[in-house]
Structures are given as C-alpha cells and as structure tokens.
Amino acid sequence: MMRSLYSGVSGLRTHQLRMDVIGDNIANVNTVGFKRSAVTFKDVFYQTLRGGSANTMNLGGTNLQQVGLGVTLDGISVIHTQGAAALTSNGTDLMIQGDGFFRVSPDGGTTKYYTRAGAFHFDNAGYLVNADGLKVLDTSGAPVQISAMADPATMPRSFSIDKLGYVHYVDNTGTAQTLTNPISVAKFSNPGGLEKVGQNLYAETASSGAPGNDLAPGQGSLANTTIIPSALEMSNVDLAQEFTDMIITERGFQANARTITTSDQMLQELVNLKR
C-alpha cells in the first residue's frame, strides 16, 4: 500500500486531536480560572531509501534519501497566562494577581488540590469553601474558618479579606478580629506539569514537582503575588486565536483527507490497468 495513505491517516488523527483541544478551549471561554491548552505536532520516523556517503577522490558526497511516514502528537501544553479580572462585588470572591494557586481540600487538609478559581463562600460552620464544598486552606495547612459563624448567637457583624489573604471580621461585641494565618497560595516551578482533574482543580504530579515553601502572598517567592477581593479571574481563552487555530486545523484536516482520496485514485488506476 502507498505510504501516503498511512501519512494521511496520521494527519487526520492528529488534527482531530487538535480540534478536540480547541473545542474544549472554546467551551470554557467563560469558565472562571480556566487555562487554555495548545497542541503541537512532530514528525514520526522515516524510511531510509539510500544512505549518505562522504566524498572520495573521484566522487562527491551524497545525501540520505528518506521518506517520512506521517505526523504524531508532540504535546498538549497548558498556557498559564493571567486571565482578565471580573469585578463581582462579592467579598468572598478572590482573584490571584500574579503566580500561584489557592489550596483547597476535600478532607480538611490531608488531600490538596490547587485552583485559580476563587469563587468562594462561607458555609454554615464558618469555613471558606468553593462551590463543591472543598475547604480553602491557610498557610498552616488548616481550613480557613471564622468559628463564630457556626453559632447564630456569635455571628460576626461584618468581614473582609485583604490583599495578603488575611480574613478580618467584627465580632458580635463590635471588636475587630483577624484570623492568625492568611489564605495560602502555592507556587510551582513548573505549573504546566500540573494535572487537570476537573471542577477547576489541578493536582500535583512528578512533572510539576511540589509547591514551594512560601505560601503567604506578598512574601518570599510570592512577593509579587497578591489577592484581589471581590473579583474573579476569567478564562485566558482568546476567541480570535481559537477561531484562527480552528480554521488552520480544519484546512489541515481537509488536506490530509485529500491526500487519502488522491492516493485511493492512484490505486484505482493500478487496479484498472488489467482492463
């Protein structure tokens, strides 16, 4: 069979994968904290028809003769650029300005996930949680909690969160209080290596490495990182870029389909030689 048939099939498969990624990016254009992904291709192995040779006294050198056998996926990279800010006027909505991720946990701190989506709220026990009930962790690894909110008799009069992640509130006696530890932010040396697990969450992997020891916004390696209250970070998907990539991918898919069609026509001519 013709090599071009297999090359064309590999082109169809890889362009379909790229279209799948583009479709996911566009679907999440309004997902809070979403980071777009980008696909790259690479060529696969080659069949050598003739090896190269060095020059001799009488003849010059010759180059290799090789035929490529198609294309395959090189990688799917998550692009962790900052998304636009959307003001919400909700005091528990938080946005990270700079590097890092909020730490959240489904079991009080033993299991940790990471997210850029800061759509939080205080539950009936005074814990700061996301929409799925995962608790936000402070720099000590404990859940952020205003314990006074657990009892209606001691409900605080008001609360606020500052740019360094400290939670302030006025208790029922009118006394200003501040939680000891601020909301934590974890920074990875290779955020592109984090695993997307759904629900706007990332999980640590061997590729991402462990987060740094600095967890307090505005300090150490997080000196340029702050928390913006009453705002959310929107998706970093650029529709103009995605639609452009979609057109390029569609044309690449069509061209590879045409390669298969043309190869089939050539094979048909061979079959018809006997007539």
Which percent range fits the helix content?
Answer: 10-25%
Give the biggest sheet: 4 strands, antiparallel
In terms of per-residue confidence, which ranges show pLDDT below 50 for 5 or more consecutive residues? none
Overall average pLDDT: 93
Taking all Cα atoms into account, the compactness measure Rg is: 28 Å
Percentage of β-strand residues: 25-35%
Say how many strands there are: 19
Shape: elongated
Span between N and C termini? 21 Å
Number of domain modules: 2
What is the ordering of alpha helices and beta strands? Answer: HEEEEEEEEEEEEEEEEEEEH
Alpha plus pi helix count:
2
Structure description:
By secondary structure, the chain is an alpha+beta fold. The protein has two domains: 109 residues, no CATH class; 147 residues, no CATH class. The protein is built from two helices and 19 strands. The strands form eight sheets. Strands 7, 8, 11 and 15 form a four-stranded antiparallel beta sheet that branches. A three-stranded antiparallel beta sheet has the order 12-13-14, with no helix packed on it. It has a two-stranded antiparallel sheet with strand order 1-4. Strand 16 and strand 17 form a beta hairpin. It is elongated and about 100 Å long. The mean pLDDT is 93. InterPro entries: Flag_bb_rod_N (IPR001444), Flagellar_FlgE/F/G (IPR020013), Flg_bb/hook_C_dom (IPR010930), FlgE/F/G-like (IPR037925), LlgE_F_G-like_D1 (IPR053967). A flexible structure which links the flagellar filament to the drive apparatus in the basal body. It comes from Neomoorella glycerini.
